[in-house]
Structures are given as structure tokens and as C-alpha cells.
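Fig. S4 source data, part A: sequence.
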Amino acid sequence: MRYLILSLLAVLAAPAWAADDGDFWYLQTSVYTRHFNPDPEHNNHQDLLGLEYNRADGVLAGGATFRNSFSQRSNYAYLGKRFDSDSHPVYLKLTGGLLQGYRGEYRDKIPLNRFGVAPAIIPSVGVRFGPLGSELVLLGNSAAMINLGLRL
């Protein structure tokens, strides 16, 4: 279903395909997750849906909803910076924000989650092909995730 939605958005965003510079919205979803120390109770299907606003200078703000490693609905609201390569369609991205959703027996699985909300810093590296993009996201020392996205 998510691939159908991304395909439809790609068709609707066709006029933006040629535009490479300027501000843009970025819609993304997770397609693969791998925990570094797998545990039978780990969820590797995050069902992530994220939307971020990227300024031409690389400053960005966004939010995402997803199922965490323990299948609990979680949310991440963040600010960050995208560092584009001048010569290749690749970039580095660093975001920092607040992570909510680790509850009950899993509350202490992320640091500083005393009140149900914890700070998070998430680095990633991305590549883009016109309006389409993919990112490899490092989730602390726990997991790595691959996201696919579309510039709107």
C-alpha cells in the first residue's frame, strides 16, 4: 500500500522533478530495519511515515510516526541540517528532537526517558534520484533502517 501511495505522489509531483534547488517537502517511509543485536521481541517492521520541510540552505524540520522496536506506536519531532554534496547526489543529515512512545516495561530501553519523552540525535546518509530518495538511518547503537522518500 505504501508503494502505491508513493507512486501516486510521484505522478502528482511530476512538475517538481526538474526542480533541484529551493525549499521542498519530503515524504518518507521505512522499508528495511536491522537490529545489531537481534532479540525475538524486536520488531523489524517500523511502518514509519514521516514528513519534513527542507529549506534550500539545508535546515529542516519534521516529524515521524512509527512502531518502535517493541511494536509500540511512537513519534519523533525534530529539527536538523542536511549537508548536500556539491558534486554528487548524496547528502548527510543530522537531526535532533524529542522521541515519544517507549512505555511500560520498555520505557528504559532509550536513555533519559523518565517522563515518556526522550531527546534523540539521529544521523543518516542519503542519495537522491530526481524526486526520489533513500536514506540509511543509524538508530543509536541499536539498529539501522533504510527509508525511501519523495520530494514534493
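Fig. S4 source data, part B ends here. The first strand starts at residue 24 and ends at 35.
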